[in-house]
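Support case: 26M complex. Customer-provided input:
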Amino acid sequence: MVLTTKEFREDFSKTFEGLYAFDLSEASPIQYYTALGNYLKVYSADNWSHTNQAYLEHQVKQVYYFSMEFLPGRMLKSNLLNLGILDTVRDGLREMGLDFEVIARAEVDPALGNGGLGRLASCFMDSIASLGIPGNGNGIRYRYGLFQQKFVDGYQVELPENWLRDGNVWEVRKENKAVMVRFGGQAILSEDPDGRLKPIYSQTQNILAVPYDTGMIGYQNEVVNNLRLWSAEIPPEEEIHYHTIADREKVNQITEVLYPDDSNYEGQILRLRQEYFFTSAGVQSIVRYYKQMVLTWQHFPDKVAIHINDTHPALCIPELMRILLDEEGLSWEQAWEITQKTMSYTNHTILQEAMEKWPVRMVQELVPRIYQIIEEINQRHIDKKLPLYTPELTYRTTIIADGNVKMAHLAIIGSHSVNGVAKLHTEILMHEVLRDFYQMYPAKFNNKTNGITQRRWLHLANEGLTKLIDNKIGTAWKTNPSELKLFKSFANNEDTLAQLAEIKLENKKQFAAYAEKEMGIELDPTALFDVQIKRLHAYKRQLLNALHILDRYLKIKDDPDLDIQPRVFIFGAKAAPSYVYAKQIIKLINTIADMVNNDPAIGNKIKVVFVENYGVSLAELIIPAAEVSEQISLAGKEASGTSNMKLMLNGALTVATLDGANVEIRDFVGEDNIFLFGLNDQEVYAFYENGTYHSRDIYDSNPRLQRVLNTFIDGTIPGIETEGRVIFDSLVQYNDEYFVLKDFESYVEVQEKVDQLYQDPMAWNQKSLLNIASSGPFSADFTIKRYAEEIWKTDSQLPA
Ligand code: 26M
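Agent response - structure generated as follows:
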């Protein structure tokens, strides 16, 4: 059944009038957008309910992806694409005299995540639906998303992100599916009539968890899966106990705001509340669903897989134990076997400071019964492992230690699978960070290199490139991204290379128009566009990028007639509000931008653009325009990275350390088509072990670098006295934790090679094409297939 533009126009007009009761010719973009969203919800409703029915009827195994964060991006276009009616709707709107792009931009971009981890979750939701895998997301419906970033005098300022102001057309509130989550009070174990120990609760605080469901529409396959986000409310029957506004606020607070930090763990009780709230609600609703199936409990892991996205949802493990033990009356052994078989866990970071641990007393007070269960899991773990391993090893792996509950240990012990997110990262987990556990449970460990959805990051974001690829190799790559490699056969076709260059130029112009309009910065679209977009963190080394810019700046100042490749340096990054050093780096880069952009001696040779409020939507504008992808974290620190994959897919050449998934990018694209520099992880470890890194020696012995660093403190960069001094000291005085100075020399060297290659457009375009053609393996579809086959054991429900 093909939708015609005529049918669309009629149905859309009806939807509109039903919604607003006035003629559609005089509406605002938000109203058009809202009506379109409603139209689509109705359009896809059958598929949504049929998918649900089919899963239940055939009792297929389903996976539940538990994540504190999701970053879906705007959903209008992606839903249209996946429903197969993007062109029809666009044409239909044009026939009505409406501008589709304006309407699409009226949608808010839900920022319910910090960065890589949340965006990965949303790429995975797209792939799970598109592969026809029975899968559900489970998370929190934050009232406020990640703060909006503004720059005031170059400093980051955070404003609240009221993403629900205009309503959310995609969600459906399901009051009938609400569950109760219990906090605090006491849990006293006592014998029930059958002689089993069961807790009796007193003085608990009961919070109602209300789910809001959003359809996750598969790519042209009639599948619609479910993303369930929970919101905290006062149970109507308990209203009477809430006497003050402050009491009520405490409940709303639970799902009020996303923690805006993805690098530094802080043991705040509200965060723990959030974690238990959405894991308990999610697990309860899974169990309730399972009980519709009239199966014995032993079959639970044959029907349910629960995936834990980092340790944030690790309380799933004791929560499932609690339900099986206390509510369903299973023995510890039965419950434990079921739980372990059900759970799997992904680690996303090796940074010690990001590892979650909770003070025992906090857990005890907030979720007393859960704490009892964690204690018993811990004790049984010790009892089981002591006879097999040295006491030292065994005690290094306990869940409870030094008065803390270690969430990673809980997640590993309670799961049947533990995975890292890139080959190198998994190696580091097995042999360094988690080696004790690897020794105990070698079979649990596996790698699942991250991936991205080519639908959002190529089809939607870069229509020009998509058309070119379609013209050259056909459209089969859209459902089988490994076919992208066929594009390689055009690497010597001058015509194709010229078209590729033209598309890139067009995308650069689009970004330039944005920079001009929003920031008043005029860009030369023929300059080289160099991009670093990711959260601001010292280990990601935006500072190294800044040092390179200053090095160029000084060179041009020395010789204003210098013949040098003009470059536009584009940054997008939010800093955690409490991360002072990261904010100082933002101020530094913004100040450098001001200085460089307004220096007539520099002209167009360098422009620096630090976009405000970087997020999914801006990524969709920047990535297609990128020519150089900066992936310059200190080797061993970036678990995977995913912007590296998106940029490669859009034809950027990567400047990289051998870190995270950069290693695999190198493997696929070949040494000749990537710019590598810097220490590798082994060299970094050797420095740590031998304690032989002395950044001051590098400062003292490298006059070029010395001159660059001195600009921080000698007045060259006006208005940076405070920040300049702190950053200078961190690098020179306090031994440069992330080896920025050590890697500087090889970084600027490789950047010169970038310039040289850019002088030969055909050679450059050829490498660009080879990058695009080599990026197929990073499709999240492949990643998800591996999760489904090797960890979740879920089957695709698509007709073969
Ligand atoms: C923890 C405790 C309290 C508050 C917040 C957190 C927290 C939130 C997010 C900690 C870490 C968070 O995210 C980490 C993250 O985004 N890691 C990135 O994951 C990507 C997907 O696997 C990888 O590509 C990145 O390399 C990795 O940095």
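The chain has three domains: 1-43+83-108, 44-73+109-450+784-792, 454-678+742-778.

Case will auto-close in a few days if no follow-up is received.
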